[in-house]
């Protein structure tokens, strides 16, 4: 983020004083309006294919954020390379607040598994707001005949010559990490099948082409409820209300440390502070509405309003965490 230039600061002050004198909008609203933002639609890039939790979260939040900004928030899917393609696109976009990126754990796992990225995950971006957090799920193709985590582990151990396959949303992503760490914890071997987004992998598990799925509950919940997928364990510190009968991985393996998913919004480096503040303020207002809180809870997620600085600190901490996990789990791409 950068500080307001003097001319902009003067315009902001004059607009705020005028609003107060006329009994108009609050100063916080005047700050955003004085900056002239936004005066056209905002693009929210999803660096994964449609159907995954990033896409679901982006589309819902965009539908609620647009009215507050007075402009449409248009979702644009730019999938590929475990979110790197979409992230690079945003990193090279104009830092005016009109091109934003929804990120999740993959953004912070990539620096741990890729030797070189086409951007710096910290210096090339401006943190805007954390959206929420939620659990992951370990699920199977119903035709596999597995009804519990113990049965899945037993089957995997009996299939060492022809290992089970498991789908994730991409190489080096949070679901890849979860799958590899689970194999090490349970003493089993499965073959990883990465996809360009969780939705594509989920489709192949539902059709039986792949046997096991690691995904977010938010993305897989409808398919679990209609029987297209069989959930066997939740990756969360505690059981969750939307799937109360599904145990956590830690109930079988007490040493397990949860890799809960999170979502947030960032923009290119160098965004003006008033624009970042306006976006953060409106996003947090959206997250605090009962309607949005209830929707997130129905997806097993929790809204998590934050400041840009708090979100930036979380990103840095997550990068450090996954670099350590990548070394211990021997996860590397290049």
Cross-sheet strand order for the largest sheet: 2-1-3-10-4-11
Mean pLDDT: 88
Structural class: alpha/beta
CATH first level of the largest domain: Alpha Beta
Protein name: Tripartite tricarboxylate transporter substrate binding protein
Family: Belongs to the UPF0065 (bug) family.
Keywords: Signal
Pfam family, one: TctC
Notes on the structure:
This protein has 334 residues and is an alpha/beta fold. The chain folds into two domains: 37-134 and 262-329, Bordetella uptake gene, domain 1 (D-Maltodextrin-Binding Protein, domain 2), CATH 3.40.190; 136-252, D-Maltodextrin-Binding Protein, domain 2 (3-Layer(aba) Sandwich). Helix content is 45%, strand content 19%. It has 13 helices and eleven strands. α3 crosses α11 and α5 (105-113) packs across α13 (308-329). The longest helix is centred in the last third of the chain and has 22 residues, at 308-329. Residues 1-34 have low confidence and may be disordered. Belongs to the UPF0065 (bug) family.
Entry keywords:
2 domains; alpha/beta; disordered N terminus; signal; 11 strands; BUG; Bug_dom1
Question: How does the SSE layout of this entry go?
Answer:
Elements: H1 6-21, H2 27-34, E1 42-46, H3 53-69, E2 73-77, H4 84-91, E3 99-104, H5 105-113, E4 125-134, E5 136-140, H6 149-158, E6 164-168, H7 174-186, E7 190-194, H8 198-206, E8 212-216, H9 217-225, E9 230-235, H10 249-252, E10 261-268, H11 273-287, H12 290-298, E11 302-303, H13 308-329
Parallel strand pairs: 1-2, 1-3, 6-7, 6-8
Antiparallel strand pairs: 3-10, 4-10, 4-11, 5-8, 5-9
Helix pairs in contact: 1-2, 2-11, 3-11, 5-13
């Amino acid at each position: 983020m950068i500080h307001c230039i003097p001319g902009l600061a003067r315009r902001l002050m004059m607009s705020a004083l005028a609003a107060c004198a006329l009994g108009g909008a609050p100063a916080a609203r005047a700050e955003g309006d004085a900056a002239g933002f936004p005066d056209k639609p905002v693009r929210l890039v999803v660096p994964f294919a449609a159907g995954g939790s990033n896409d679901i979260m982006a589309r819902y939040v965009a539908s609620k954020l647009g009215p507050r900004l007075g402009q449409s928030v248009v979702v644009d899917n730019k999938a590929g390379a475990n979110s790197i393609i979409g992230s690079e696109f945003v990193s090279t976009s104009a830092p005016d607040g009109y091109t934003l990126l929804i990120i999740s754990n993959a953004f912070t796992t990539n620096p741990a598994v890729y030797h070189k990225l086409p951007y710096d995950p910290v210096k090339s971006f401006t943190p805007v707001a954390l959206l929420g957090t939620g659990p992951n799920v370990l699920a199977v193709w119903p035709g596999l005949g597995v009804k519990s985590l113990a049965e899945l582990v037993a089957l995997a151990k009996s299939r060492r010559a022809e290992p089970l396959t498991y789908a994730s949303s991409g190489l080096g992503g949070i679901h890849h990490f979860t799958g590899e760490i689970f194999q090490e914890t349970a003493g089993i071997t499965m073959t990883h099948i990465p996809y360009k987004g969780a939705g594509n992998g989920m489709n192949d598990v539902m059709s039986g082409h792949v046997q096991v799925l690691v995904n977010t509950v938010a993305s897989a919940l409808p398919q679990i409820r209609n029987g297209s997928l069989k959930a066997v364990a939740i990756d969360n510190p505690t059981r969750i209300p939307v799937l109360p009968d599904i145990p956590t991985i830690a109930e079988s393996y007490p040493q397990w440390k949860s890799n809960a998913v999170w979502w947030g919004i960032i923009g290119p480096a160098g965004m003006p502070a008033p624009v970042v503040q306006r976006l953060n303020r409106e996003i947090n207002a959206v997250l605090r509405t009962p309607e949005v809180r209830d929707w997130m809870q129905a997806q097993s997620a929790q809204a998590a309003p934050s400041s840009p600085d708090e979100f930036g600190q979380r990103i840095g901490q997550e990068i450090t965490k996954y670099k350590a996990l990548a070394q211990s789990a021997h996860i590397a791409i290049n």
